[in-house]
């Protein structure tokens, strides 16, 4: 596969690989995998909120340690978690790096008239760690909870059912369309010889995108006709997975709630 | 464009959640009125198509590539309420399946990419389509992404977690996306032109009920 358009296949393959890897971890028997998805979602969101509230390095490090402990308990390989979570905090560090010299404070190093301050360095480190912990928490939910369970949790958490169904159907057809798009790009590439210009590449990708979207709409219409033929009233698929919320689920949510309150108290006091 | 957790203050993130929740709630109600409970999920098929189309690399000079965001296109193709719902599904799956953005920041990402992008794109297209349809699609794609970037710049700039001033975050986001938005506009116009040529029945406003497909009523 060559060319910018051809690299779309690599992007699709990369996305699929990460989803399949996450599904494999989600199928293992770990702490978060055994939890009710409502409890995991609420707890991880609570921990992320606690990270957003804090401005203290020690609290951020503690919440980072909690994230690592949850990952270990859930049999998530730390290398994989780090690989998933490293890019965003590193980019964020690059964005806020000028603050190391912009923020006033005690001078740590001075060269060429530029002074690096302690307040600036503290801010950059804290900001990067907060973003890193937030991203790691999201990655944790992504790799330990199957999306079908997340959909069931959304329904149980009273997200409007029409929206839940739209999300469920989007997820259901996504992989089919990834496959279809991959085949379209592959077919176009197999008919193309020589180097493609930017203009030629645009012409190709416009045809691929247009044809693909038309096929998508056509499939939607066929699914609609199929539903009508069957009477139309039956929802596309059941996602009602009732589970008993056990003591561990309550404990996890209570722990997350306590973390939010603790983070709040440390920042603003009682 | 995805905002990760850590950039927004909890208060700003909460306001984004409220604004997105209200807009998506209205969109859900209108979609149910329009399509009914049975056919609303079919919107997910089109949403999945837009999501997959985002994976295509569009070549730009210099050997690099750009991606389609698709909010304005969703608004043009589906109308405001169905477009908001489709992009809500896309942004939610991006966060909870692919780990793009953040959990607390999901409200902000929904507001920028599923609400503002779609509604601004739709409004611009609706206002300009009488002048030139493909041109209107271009301006819709460009304008929508720029206004979305303004929303992100405002949210991040107003957050104390991010040390840069509001003026700077807004300027960088708006100026950057005014330029990058030209690519989104060009992609929106190219895809719109292709789809409109092949299926003129899908073009918004050519039928009284503005439905996606008059034949099946989706």
UniProtKB/TrEMBL annotation, chain A:
UniProt KW keywords: Cell membrane, Membrane, Transmembrane, Transmembrane helix
Record Pfam families: CbiQ
Residue ranges of the TM segments: 43-69, 81-101, 121-144, 156-178, 250-269
GO terms, biological process: cobalt ion transport
Main location: membrane
Superkingdom as given in the UniProt entry: Archaea
Database matches in PANTHER family: SLL0384 PROTEIN
Protein name: Putative cobalt ABC transporter permease
Organism: Halorubrum saccharovorum DSM 1137
Taxon lineage: Archaea, Methanobacteriati, Methanobacteriota, Stenosarchaea group, Halobacteria
UniProtKB/TrEMBL annotation, chain B:
The keyword Lipid metabolism is annotated on this UniProt entry: no
Residue ranges of the TM segments: 6-28, 40-60, 66-91, 103-125, 137-158, 170-195
Keyword Isomerase: no
Membrane topology: Multi-pass membrane protein
BP terms from Gene Ontology: transition metal ion transport
Primary residence: membrane
Lineage: Archaea, Methanobacteriati, Methanobacteriota, Stenosarchaea group, Halobacteria
Name of the protein in question: Cobalamin biosynthesis protein CbiM
Entries under Pfam families matching the protein: CbiM
Any GO CC annotation of this UniProt entry: plasma membrane
Native species: Halorubrum saccharovorum DSM 1137
